[in-house]
Structures are given as C-alpha cells and as structure tokens.
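Lecture 7 notes: from sequence to structure.

We start with a single chain of 491 residues. Read the sequence below before looking at the structure.
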Amino acid sequence: MSLRALWIISHEKGENVSIRFSRRFATVEHRAKILAGSSYAAVPEENTVLQLLLTELGLSDSDKSYVALRDDCLHHQRSPALELRVDGPEKGILWPVLAVSQGPLILACLPLVDAPAEPRPPLTSLLSVSQGLTLLAGLQTFLLGSGGKPDSEGLASRLAMLPSVLLQVCPLGSPLDVPLLGGPAAPTVPTPAGSQKQPAWKTGLHRGRAVVNVALVETVRSMQYGNQSRQDLWDVYGTVTCKCEVEGVLPNVTVTLTLPPNGSPLQDILVHPCVTSLDSSILTASSVDNYDGSAFSGPYKFPFSPPLEPFRLCSYTSQVPVPPILGSYQLKEEENQLRVSVTLKLHESVKNSFEYCEAHLPFFNRDQMGVVDVKVSSGQLDVSKEKNLLVWGLGQKFPKSREVTMDGKISFSGPTPGPADPLCTELTAYIKLYFKVPDMTLSGCCVDQHSVQVYSSAKPRIVTSRELLSKEYFIWNSTGTAPVSSGQIML
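Now the structure, written as tokens:
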C-alpha cells in the first residue's frame, strides 16, 4: 500500500481554514500514472484540493443550502472515501480520498489503488483503504493525543515534527507496520491462542501498554410547542464508542451495558461487524412496535475482537417518559417591541450538574436590535445586536427550585436589517438549548468498569465514561405558528 498525497487541514467550524501540512510522493504518483493510463488524474494544487474537500465535507458555502457538486441526487457520497471532481487543465476524478475529521483538524490522504479504474472496485476489496484509514488514525492520535483537544503550541510543535515522523513510519509514501499486499501478515506478538491469521480489516498490531476505553454518549432531541393542540416530541438515542489498545492478533473483549431496575429496554440496537456473537432477543426490540413490557431488559453483552482504531461498538434508542428540560416560550408584540417570557424547568430525574448549558434566542426578519431590557433569574445574558441573538448562559447548575425564568422587552430600532430566515416570520420563533451532562444518561444505561472483560496476555487499564448531550433541542413560541412533524418522534 502506498500514498499519493497527504494533507492536514485546520479549521474552526469551517472558518479560518488552512493547510497546515501537505506531502506528495513523486515515486507513488509515477506508479499511479502508469497504472491509470488514459484515465489518470493528477493531484491538483493545494488550494484546489482544499476547496474541493471542504465542499464535499459540507464546510464551505455555508450560506448555500444546496451545492450541486455535493447535493445532486446523482452524486453518491461514500464517506470516508470521497470523490473529488477536478475541473480545468487537470480535469479528472480523484478517488478514493480518505478524510477523517476531529476537533480542529481534518486529515486526508489519497491512497494508490492498484486496480482498474472501471468498473470501480468496491471499497471492501481495497486493502489500501483500510490501511490508509489506519495511518490517518495513527497520525490523528499523534497530533491530537487521546483527549482530542491539544493546545495550539502543542499542535504546532507536533506538526513541526511530522516530516521526520513520516520518514520513519511512511518512507517514500509506503506506511510501515501494515500487512503487505499479496499475503497475510504474520503476528509478531505471541498470543494465548497461538499462531493466528490476521484478518484483512485489521491492518496492524498494537504494541505497548494495554488500555480499553469505552465511552457511552446519549443524545436527546426535542420539539416543544407549549400548546395543547400540538403534541411535544422527543427522542433519545445512544452510541457506545470503543478504543481498544490490546496486544494480540484477535484479542477477545466483552462490554456489558446495564439498566436500572425500572429502566426502559434498549431498542433498535445496531452493532459493529466485529461483534462475534449476540443474543437474538437483543436485536428484535424495535421502537416501531408497541412496548408490552416483555422486551429484553439486559444486561446487554457484546463480545468482540476489536480493530485498532476507535469504532462505534453499538447504537440504540430508548423511550423515556419526559424530556430533561421542559420549557415555555411566549412572545407578544407591543408597538415596535417584543415582550419576551421564558421558563425553563429541569426535571427531577436529571442530574443537576452540567458541563455547559446555554439557551439561544434568535430573532429573524426584523430590524437590528435596539434597546434590550431583559432580566434573568439565574445565569448570565449576552446580547449580540449584530446577529439579533440572545445567549442565556445557565452555567453548571440550576437553582434549588430547578426552575429559571427570563422576562423583558426588546426593541428593534437598529439602522440595518437583522438576519433573515424563510421559516421564522412574524411570531414564529424558537429557543435552542445546548447542554451536556457528564456521568449521566436519560435511560440509566451505563458501562460498569468491572464488567469489561479482556482476554489478553496483559491486564489492561479500563476507562469508562458516559454523558448526555442535546441536539436539535427546540422550544417554540406558543403564541405563534410552528412547524409540526407529520410523524411522531416518540410516544
């Protein structure tokens, strides 16, 4: 396996984008030209690659909801193997461009495909794709560390070291410590199971300290209307992500999810292909069916042989009786002012300890904000008149009453129009909540550190975590119209 090119791009939510590092391998490019023949497409200049990659990832043209190159129905995206269409003198198609994004960095590479361009081979048959992703995952860990959020100085120093690092791990564009094409790799680390054949999807072996990291993240979405004629909607889904640094060709790991005695059974469970066996009752629970109390309620055991890179072990949905934060939002027109009244109440079942909690109140299709006379019972209010936006920072705790309020008036007498939105006209408005609650899930699902079993020559360190995140958590103004889903998210 060889690489034609490698790029490392930094960005901040699609802004301040720049290529921090790039490397092309001329000898590999010469081989690519011979293999491709008349269908050869040269790697274009950095700026062209950057623009095409950002467009494909949806990080450019943020003001455009539709970009033909990316959103046309005839275009089939196959993430993380992207297709970049190059125009101009170097017209052609670059495929497969592998891209991995985490935090402030995008890591991308173009592996050499040692196969005819047409018909295009399936990704599962290309060893270079899995090896390229393994290399990107290794570089990602080197640059960002295990936490994924390095300081700017640390990142700069590691980027400066990268040329010498690549000379060691990827000389002349050929990564080391991966199976060679044409034959399976022999294990270099002795395992209890003896000599084992290394599968094609596992492109290397771990050497060093054994660590198993299991992270459970539950996400809650909600649409609250504050109106009896429209039913509030919410749903909860969870993902379990693992990073297993364990020695051996095919080490065995078992992760167990447990629920509290009164917890609702997990539903719509999907598992990673590396899971070796599973109780059929785990996969049959579906949110489409009416819950009759007889569904399997755990414990949920997932035995698997892990790949080297971080992966999603499983995902699920859960039916919870109430959303974590209940809200009421009312707007009233008073001459050229808006009367704002908001109440947010934290449910008693939710842990009152946030990593962050914010409420954003945007106002569209009005003049720029003038006088803002708004009081909050708790937290801090920031006003962005240029964006017609109120940001209510609620901090890390609700008060003892678990209820906070906002009340006041806003005038819109600025000299220029504010931001526009085709949906939020007149009194159609919303609050969007952003929050994270560490060490908690709504379903009560958890991964017990002592229940993680690893069958390997070395005893690993086990790290488990869980957290609750909000996503698309809206509270609509009850005195105006609001969009209503034709289907119910959750009963």
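The longest strand covers residues 461-476. Keep this in mind for problem set 3.
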